[in-house]
Amino acid sequence: MIIEALIAVTFAASMAVLLAPDRVAGRLAAALSLLPVVGSLYMWSRFDASGNALTGGSIAFETMVPWLELGGYTLNWHVGVDGIGLPLVVLTTVLTTLAIVSAWTPIDDRQSQFYGLMLFMEANLLGVFTALDFFVWFVFWEAVLLPMYFLIGVWGGPRRKYAAIKFFVYTNIASLAMFIGFIALVFGLGDSVSTLDMPAIAQALRAGELGGLHGISAGTLRSVAFIAMFLGFAVKVPIVPFHTWLPDAHVEAPSPVSVMLAGVLLKMGTYALLRFNFTMLPQTAVQFAVPIALIAVISVIYGAMLALAQQDLKRIVAYSSVSSMGYVILGLIAYTVYGVGGATFQMIAHGLISGLMFMSVGVIYNTTHTRMVGDMSGMADRMPVTVGILIAGAFGYMGLPLMAGFAGEFFIFKGAFESTVTGAMPLFTAAAMFGIVVVAGYLLFAMQRTLFGAFRLETDYEVGPAALHQTVPLAILLVTIIALGVAPDIFFGMIRDAVAPLLEFGGEL
Amino acid sequence: MTPLQIQLPTWTAVAPTLLLGLTALVLLLVDSIDPDSTRPGLLAGISALGSVATLAVAGWFLLAGTGQDGGAIELYGGSLIVDGLSLFFTVVFASVAALVSIASYDYLRDRTYQAEFYALVMLAATGMSLMASAGSLATVFVSLELASLPSYALVAFLKKNRGSVEAGLKYFLVGAVSSAVFAFGISLVYAATGSLLLSEVASSIGSAGDLVGVAGVGVLMIAGGFAYKTASVPFHFWAPEAYEGAPAPISAFLSSASKAAGFAVAFRVFAVAFPIESVVPMGIDWPLLFAVLAVVTMTLGNFAAATQENVKRMLAYSSVGHAGYALIGLAALSSGGPNGDVMGASMAHLFVYGFMNTGAFLFIAMVERWEVGRTFEDYQGLATQAPMACVAMTVFMFSLAGLPPFGGFLSKYALFYSAIQGGFWWLAAVGAINSALSLFYYSRVVKAMWIEDPADSLDLGTTPLGIYVAVLAAAVGTLLLLPAFGPVVETAQSAATALFA
Fold this sequence. Notes:
A: about 500 residues; 2 strands; B: about 500 residues; mainly alpha; two-stranded antiparallel sheet; 20 helices
């Protein structure tokens, strides 16, 4: 029942904030958003699942109630978490609270609607990471888009309308492709499943019960469905060449929304890839190992190159997300405990680190009202604490040991080197590792120009340190990132436990 | 559960219809006692109360299994039939009538002939309820006219307004032509089968012999009559004019309830009187006819809606598009297919549509009351002034577009899914593509309300309470129909399955 309570409390909080007066909305939203944080930490402390939720492992906090029946398929309200879902739930609750606090300064218009939508989005994100019935999952998955559309479109920058529509159209079309792909699989399973329950479908697919459909052979159906779902999720992740909505959305979105977009929403894509493509159709994934690893490497390198070419701090961070998500894909396709587990761990680590980066760029922007690298220099003189945390975050991005980013990337590279899905994996891994060099290059280059040197920024007011409530969320994030880097087992233990069963698949390739 | 009408006299099964008619008479009575009444609250109250009472009784009968367990209840020698289908649609009509009555309280403020307005709405609702239970082609025709005649008057209700009068006249002329076509179709079917009772038509149409051609033309003409009532191609021309010119609550009433009534009677007539097993081999392939109409209607409605600048007219064309989706319930049928499930899914879609579309038109009514204008541009920045109402409108728009997490998503999913199960995957594909395209014009409304900046002098004045309540009630209904969709679709599918039995 705790998952239902978590989602219901968050929904109720969003309604309460929506109806609250603008003056108190920010404070109220932050206070109410602590409830899901406490709830998710409680879940972490009482976590007792083992194995993977989809392949027959035991599921923590599970509930399953019939919802409705449609043409022979029962739809259930089925929620629960395993070692993959829980870390993402914790990430969502923590990051939402911090993003809400970081919005106090920049958001000065229609506050109650803004914070109400943030909480509404959180409730749906929690649903995405806990739902175990496809239909329930899809409802939450789509429902995340609506608040995001408004958050970008109403509170965004000058080109917000274009960015919001682009985001909305891209992700909706992607959802349609994914939906069709998955439903085709369910039809292909025929009588062997009578629900849209994800564990049941995953187990049936892994057991090779897929039949043909309307004269299409099982093998073709499997490949087509895999590609349809992969494309659908690739837009969300995003993977090159489906990444073009991302810089627009990020640049136009207000910083707290960017934090949620990069920190949690991108993880929906990788989470879904792991849950659907890589869990349900492992043989097909291995079949496509070379192209998948190739686009992962392209994402890493091309994303980093694009970041190198940017003049806008926020765009730099946005493109570096494309690059980091490439690592996650590389880890997933490796099909080793460290590869898949590292990818999952990297989702959390990247969520925290990119959240930190966007938040600190936002804090600087609140003061300077510019994000252009060329417009400022020597910010370290005026905002030492913020700049210090930003630099720490950048090193986290580059994979400095003892920070979460290092653990994630190290696991991925270890897993990818060991991988045997294709003989060329070590080669791909080596190429991807080259990306780190580029990351270090563009981050250090941008830092050096904006943060150090003599102070230069043309303003008609005094530039000084940021307010305490702007710095505290940054500090909390930094502490969390270091804690996860020092002791990755906070999450990695349960993650490893949950991904191990995914690797055991036999059958014909 | 024991069916109620074992303890109660059989005629009580039509109680919902009688209640609606009674409400109309009470309204006329009040008006004749106090013809100069300036108490809109009393009239709107009677009308809303009568609708809610009808809703309660129909819902109670539906849950108690009236006309479902133990077979349909036949009255007047089978001319009237009370079963799951008729009760299900009566629930839709009563819900819409209640919402419209509540909203009209503000809309009609300071206007004359209020009692007549509510009485006409109730009479039209009575006619719709009769349409859903009509068991012979004669009752079909009479009840169709009973529903149509008050509608003509209601569309032209704003008689000082040229648009309203023009709309009423167009509606009436197209209606008269299609009534004639419909009546001629009935006479041809009668000529071929020698009966007007649906069940007897069914049993004798198989032996029509040389008169197959006559029967076929009759079926075609009857289908034309339904196309008019449901605003489907090729008899859809009246719809944009009538919906745009009519008072907005009446647009809501016509585009939701009247359309559903057309489908109710079409479902029964085609499923019962022209059984697929016997008429399709004779060459009277009406599912194919409806499949073509469905594709053309949804595509035409969607593309026309996308090009509109006037929000009300956009909704009018979207209503044509939705008629196309609902037509899948008559199209994706085949001998031995899961016909009950397909038709039931279409009924469930009309149920959800009743809430979301009524709510959308009532929001237009509220905007008309505010007098800010009719185009997308005039809607800019409304959310800054009336956030709750705009949240409700956003719910309607996204639900009409079929996005989760709203009722419209599930009902469209169920509809397309059942079409696929019936083997009509291409019909479902056309529907899904159209549905995806429709997001374009629905989201324009949302974008205007929330994202565009308001005009400099946006002042809405007072909030019309009645419309506000009705809009919020419809929004809550649209939201609740997501978790509560299960019982709705199960009831609809079992009611539809009973027709094919």
